[in-house]
Design brief:
The structure is a single chain. The chain folds into 3 domains: 32-85, no CATH class; 100-233, no CATH class; 250-367, 3-layer Sandwich (Rieske Iron-sulfur Protein), CATH 2.102.10. The strands form 7 sheets. A 5-stranded mixed β-sheet has the order 1-12-3-2-11. The protein has a 4-stranded antiparallel β-sheet with strand order 4-5-6-10, with no helix packed on it. It is built from 6 helices and 25 strands. It is of the alpha+beta class. It is globular, with a radius of gyration of 28 Å.
Amino acid sequence: MKLTVPLVVLAVLAVAVVALFLVPETEPTAVTLKNKERTKPAVSVGSGDSSPIDPTLPAGAANNASAAAENAKSTDEASPRVFTSNWPAEPPLYPVVVGEVRETEGDSEDDSQELGICAVIGDKPIFCSLSVFDSQRPLVNFKLDNTSCAVAFDSAHDQPYLIVAAAAASFQQIRDRLLATPLFRDRISGVWWSPLTTTPLRGESESRMKIVAATIMPASEWRTMNPDTARIELPPSETQGKPVTELRPLNERAKAIVGVLLADQAKHVSVSQLLDAKLLLSSGGEAVIAVDFGRNQLRAFRTDLNGERLDFYSEGEQIVDRQTDSTWDMASGRGTSGPYAGRKLEPVPLFVVPESAWRELHPQSVRF
């Protein structure tokens, strides 16, 4: 009897040891990690709105964007293509509108405070009144010297866009959105574009569209700087709205970021960092952002001129470069006095957009 208990204990221990070898191995830690990887969102988001769905869209359009977003969550490599992969080949589109180009030199109609999208395409200044755009007409096509162009206005962010196609194109804006920013589709090639990047988001294209630096200012101010401006107008069959004379102040968009497209690098800075600034020079010194909250304007320019990189600073109300002591009007980028009087800096495309959109389309963007 004295040996019975130890023998029973030994038998139980033996059974337990055998069971350890017979039960299949499990890796709870590895499974947990895989689950985390599978549910990790593929979209890098910042402090801005990360939703790819426009709340004003019809239910069907929102469902398409929602399905695309769900697909994005299960993909490890984030890409804007993720958001368009599940969308229909023929997405819901706004109507096609083709505008007319009219010369305005000497026309008193442009002596007004109506706001419009202003830009220079090649050597030709253009102006398109904001009254051209409405909820069903966010984009207008036009031709300038047989070059296909489109001008668009995103009223949700008061952001202008101007694109120039390298080949014949006819753009329509898609009712779905990519991270709260517009999407365009070229009816000729079928390629989808974002006006924030020159790379196609869907479809193949041998050529990239060019994004032209555009700003919003009163017609009279733009015409004073560019007397030979051409106006982009609607055809007689379209009804134009009332002139727009003011937009939301820039300082009310402090949660957005300012994205800048340079030739070899996308850069960004938050609007809140510009609230107390007049000038912001890029980290590499290749570009400068001029801030004018009084006129509700932001402009960006390259600092290279005549093979020399200029360094700017503000002195009272004036903007001066340290190299020549020339003064500059940063609304136009034109020198006003000194050795560079009359010379112009090259404008750089600049966008005030949600941070999530910029980071998704430009994941390699660095701080300005």
